[in-house]
Every structure is written in structure tokens, then in C-alpha cells.
Design goal:
The complex is a heterodimer of chains A (424) and B (148). Chain A is an alpha/beta fold and 424 residues long. Chain A has 18 helices and 14 strands. Chain B has 3 helices and 13 strands; from the N terminus they run βββββββββαβαβαββ. The chains are: A alpha/beta (424), B alpha/beta (148).
């Protein structure tokens, strides 16, 4: 791989051992990819917090050891300096204020808070959400980023037109210290062109339907770039957030185009720009039903946990839940956690939404989600969720069956303790 | 014969590109399904946990893992990284589809890994075959398991 003089200086250790280890990892990673060079980035979103039991032993050796091993792939413990470029923390395993409701031991919550204090002072901004684009990190079109979080990556590329691959804990750790990431994949304009044409032949409007479409599509196209036309109604941040998260769970979609809506495709021709089309797909009623059936793996209709807010809810989604719950009470058998970024929780409190949800018996969580934390309310046997992504992952991660449906069906399940969702 | 050498003693040789250097040999574990790291594997046991995955419940510890590539969460590399720290990582990885997840995952697992093969490893290698990977030379030597 070709390095600039500044990069070579870091690689040779002239900028200290941490940058040396970071460059060493970026070179190994870049060569593994077959990249020819690195690109400068000033926007890194990664995972730095020490919030899981498996890092306990490393934490005993100090946070430099945590960063060295987990964020730089370095067995040598190197002193970690301040972040070189804008860097933020994505979702974590623990809600700093409601860890006891999650069922998390205090010792782990304290460990996360200590880690935050340490890494916060080094310049890692503690957004603590899977949706940094909802709370102020909104890269401009063409901006080179180094982001983790598959649902944020697909949003960043497709909806914002900024450029990132799905990075990992180690590559973002190295990027934060060097301001570099391999120039490969979606950093290169040609690779951003569409190579699947998808005709949406059934009305897709509700959040649930955007999730179903994404879930069906991801499994087929895997990591390729679909171009969607047809009956996609009223696309919005919320709907595209759900669509992308689903497509990046059943497959590895990091980029898609909706001609006329997303910024790199005024029309199909511009979206494809001469790239060879691999296949043409049609999404109709049968495909919709297939996705729905794949996401619903429960058979017991007694729901004891309702999980809402994956990816983290926008304020409008919190409002929709609060207003449906207002003045009513959740079933005594059922718990409900609503997840939203901490900054938006602040807004939800001012609006009274938090109070409405809490008075109904629900919880408004931030910083985390059950899939990341691996914690659901103790004794949970059946989960209901409005998120295709959680419906995909929770059965594997927590070994608990899931019902998937609309927000209203999920809230209703919380109120009655029964799943009555169905595909209409 | 094109692109490969059939040898009388049941050996097949594939050529490819080094992803992570090194040499390893062991029994192949082959899947046609892409693999998720976070949410797809158990990093303490080295098993696949995804609900509809053909390897669900199967351990890749000490195996030569042959799979199409990575999918899903960006936690892919972190989870394969932890399989190494926990001593349950695959011995080597062979995958035709290059992505950032698959590349970084292989790099931090420190397992000899290859891609860009002259023949599809998923078509040539079956679970149980004995596989020697020399990633530095770009050679994979497959000894088919005895039939019957």
C-alpha cells in the first residue's frame, strides 16, 4: 500500500507508539482488502466503551490496555493520546441511569461510567446511540467517514450521500488516532452505483412495511447495491432508518438508491451509471408475506416484553407511542422499553412523553438496546417488537422468540399482554 | 485441466490471494450461508447461533472455515477478535467475497486467510476434507475425505 509522507511518519513511530500501532493495523487491513492507499477522514463513529463482561480482565489492566487490544489489535499496551479527529461513541451496552431496570450488575455500570470518563476526556463524544445522524453527526454529501453500526452506515451512504464502509471496532479505533481509513469500497464513486433493480409492486408506507421490504431485499442482494422504484410512499428519516437496518441485518446492504429521493440518483440512469445489472427483482404481496413469516418466529401469544426503538427512535416515534399509551396502563404481565438517543430523551421529557410512557408502566431507555446489552427483563419468554432488526437478532442473541408487527400492534400487546398482530 | 491440479492421491490445489499471512492445516467446515459476527456467533464457544443458519449450533474452533463472506453487524470483527482472545477462533478462513467486515475480521483473528481463488472453494471443499492453507504462497491444498 502506498503511504504519504505523513502516514509513513506515523507508521515508522515518529508520532508515538499509539499512532504506530494504528497505522500498522490500517496497513494490514488495507492490504487484506487489496486497497492501494488510505483516505483522510474527520468523522469517526466507533465503539470504545467497556460495557461487557468479557472485557473485565482487560479493564483491570487499564483503559490503555482496553483500547490497545480491542481498538488497535495490539497486544502491546500503548498509551492512548487524544483523538486526532472528530470521533463519537455509538450505542453501548448499558443505560447509565436505568441499568438496574436492565438487570445489569452495578459493577458493570460503574465500569462503563469509568470508561466514559476516561475516553470522553480523550475526545470521544458520548452520543451513545446507533443513530448519530439523529443527534448532530450529519456528514455532508461526499464526506469520507469511518463509521461502525451497519444501520448507520447504510443511512450515511444512501440517504446522506457521505462515504463510509462498514468499519469495525479496530479500524475505527485506528482511524480516530490517525484520521485515515483504507480508500476502498464505498469511498470509491464507481462502487456506489446500483447493480440490482427492484420494482416495488405493493404499497410500502408504514414503518413496518419499510422493515419488511428491507428484510426481504437484504437476504437476496446481500452486500450489493439495489435501486428501488415503484410504490415507496412518503419516505422519511424514520422509514429509511428502518428499511436500511433491516436490509443490513438479513444481508449486508451498505448502499441503496431511491431515484428522486436519495442524493446520488436523480433517476435510475444516474443510480446505475453504466454498471452491469446483476438482476431485476419484484417485491409484491407474496414477497411481503414471506418476509413477515420469516420475522415472526413465536407461537405463544402471551407477550411479556415489548421492545420499541431499534434503530433508536426519533422523537416523532416516541410521541406516537406516548400518545397511544396516554392515560392507559400496560398489562401487569408485560413490560415495555422504548429506546431513543439520550439527547432526544431530553426532548421527550420536556414534551411530557416520558411521563405518559412511565405512567402507563413503560420505560424510556437510552444508550443501549436488548440486542447490544443482551439483557431483556428477567424471565422474558416472548418478545414483541416493531423492529425487523431486533426480530432478526434477538432470537439468536437471547434465545427468545419474537413477534414482529406495527408500532400500534406492539403497544396493544403491551396493554393486553396478548399478541394480536397480523398481516393486513 | 484448467486452473487446478488433480493429483492421483485425491488432492486438489487452489490458488488465491493472501488476506492474512501464515500457514495452517485442519479439517474444513464449509457453509454456503454468509456469517454474522455480532448476533451470529457465540464468541465464548466459537459456535454459530443465527436462527436460520445451516451451521447453527456448530463450532468452528480449530476448523478451516470456508464460507462465502461476512454479513450483518459491524461488530463482526470485534466478535471474531474475541473468539481469538477466548481461544475458540477458526484456524484459517477462506472466503470468495471480500468485504470490509470479512477483511478486518480475518486480520484481527490473526488466522491465515485467503480470497480471490482460481476456483470456487465452496464448490471444491466439503466439510470434513483436510485442508492445508499457505496464505503467504497463496496455495490451498485439499485432501478429500474418504467417501463411504
Amino acid at each position: 500500500m502506498k503511504l504519504t509522507d505523513a502516514e509513513q511518519a506515523m507508521y515508522d513511530g515518529r508520532q508515538g507508539p499509539a499512532k504506530q500501532k494504528a497505522m500498522d493495523l490500517l496497513v494490514r487491513y488495507g492490504e487484506a482488502l487489496g486497497a492501494e492507499r488510505l483516505v483522510e477522514t474527520n468523522n469517526v463513529a466507533g465503539a470504545f466503551n467497556a460495557s461487557t463482561p468479557s472485557v473485565r480482565e482487560l479493564v483491570k489492566k487499564g483503559f490503555d490496555a482496553v483500547y490497545s487490544e480491542l481498538n488497535l489489535d495490539s497486544q502491546d499496551v500503548v498509551p492512548i493520546p487524544k483523538m486526532a479527529v472528530n470521533t463519537c461513541q455509538l450505542i453501548t451496552g448499558i443505560d447509565n441511569d436505568r441499568w438496574h431496570i436492565q438487570g445489569i450488575p452495578q459493577e458493570l455500570a460503574d465500569q462503563q461510567k469509568k470508561a466514559e470518563k476516561h475516553f470522553g476526556a480523550l475526545g470521544i463524544n458520548m452520543f451513545a446511540t446507533c443513530t448519530p445522524y439523529q443527534v448532530g453527526n450529519v456528514p455532508v454529501k461526499g464526506e469520507h467517514c469511518a463509521w461502525m453500526e451497519s444501520s448507520a452506515v447504510v443511512y450515511c451512504n444512501s440517504v446522506l450521500g457521505a462515504r463510509t464502509n462498514t468499519e469495525g471496532k479496530e479500524s475505527t479505533g485506528a482511524a480516530a488516532l490517525t484520521g485515515r481509513i483504507p480508500y476502498w469500497g464505498y469511498h470509491i464513486p464507481e462502487n456506489r452505483r446500483g447493480n440490482y433493480l427492484v420494482e416495488v409492486d405493493v404499497e410500502v408506507d408504514d414503518i413496518m412495511d419499510y422493515g419488511l421490504l428491507g428484510y426481504w431485499l437484504g437476504e437476496i442482494v446481500q452486500e450489493e447495491v439495489p435501486v428501488l422504484t415503484g410504490k415507496l410512499r412518503n419516505p422519511s428519516l424514520i422509514k429509511l432508518k428502518h428499511f436500511g437496518a433491516a436490509a443490513a441485518s438479513s444481508g449486508g446492504v451498505e448502499m441503496y438508491h431511491v431515484p428522486g429521493i436519495t442524493p446520488e440518483a436523480r433517476d435510475v440512469e444516474e443510480a446505475v451509471a453504466g454498471r452491469k445489472i446483476v438482476d431485476r427483482l419484484r417485491y409484491g404481496a407474496a414477497e411481503r408475506k414471506l418476509a413477515y413469516e420469516r420475522l415472526n418466529c413465536a407461537d405463544n401469544r402471551d407477550v411479556d416484553f415489548v421492545m420499541l426503538g431499534c434503530p433508536h427512535n426519533a422523537i416523532e416515534q416516541v410521541a406516537r407511542i406516548a400518545l397511544q399509551l396516554d392515560g392507559r396502563k400496560l398489562s401487569l404481565k408485560t413490560q415495555m422499553w422504548v429506546h431513543t438517543p439520550r439527547a432526544l430523551r431530553e426532548v421527550a421529557e420536556r414534551n411530557g412523553y416520558v411521563k405518559m410512557i412511565e405512567e402507563a408502566g413503560g420505560v424510556v431507555m437510552s444508550d443501549t438496546c436488548p440486542a447490544i446489552s443482551r439483557y431483556a427483563p428477567k424471565g422474558t419468554k416472548v418478545i414483541a417488537t416493531d423492529s425487523a432488526k431486533q426480530a432478526h437478532y434477538l432470537p439468536a442473541i437471547l434465545n427468545i422468540p419474537v413477534w414482529f408487527g406495527t408500532v400500534e400492534e406492539c403497544v396493544e400487546a403491551g396493554l393486553t399482554g396478548k399478541w394480536n398482530g397480523r398481516l393486513k | 485441466m484448467t486452473g487446478m491440479q488433480e493429483r492421483p492421491n485425491n488432492k486438489i490445489v487452489l490458488h488465491g490471494r493472501k488476506v492474512v499471512g501464515g500457514v495452517a492445516e485442519g479439517e474444513a467446515l464449509v457453509t454456503r450461508d454468509t456469517i454474522s459476527g455480532w448476533g451470529g456467533i457465540n464468541e465464548r464457544e466459537g459456535t454459530v447461533i443465527e436462527r436460520r443458519h445451516e451451521l447453527r449450533g456448530v463450532s468452528f474452533k480449530d476448523k478451516i472455515l470456508v464460507f462465502p463472506g461476512a454479513k450483518g453487524s459491524s461488530g463482526y470483527s470485534a466478535y471474531f477478535h474475541m473468539t481469538r482472545l477466548n481461544g475458540v477462533n477458526p484456524k484459517a478462513m477462506l472466503f470468495p467475497k471480500m468485504t470490509t467486515k470479512a477483511a478486518l475480521g480475518a486480520v484481527v483473528t490473526h488466522a491465515p486467510s485467503m480470497t480471490d481463488f482460481d476456483r470456487d472453494p465452496l464448490a471444491v471443499i466439503e466439510t470434513g476434507d483436510w485442508v492445508k492453507v499457505d496464505a503467504d504462497k497463496g496455495i490451498v491444498e485439499v485432501t478429500k475425505k474418504a467417501k463411504g
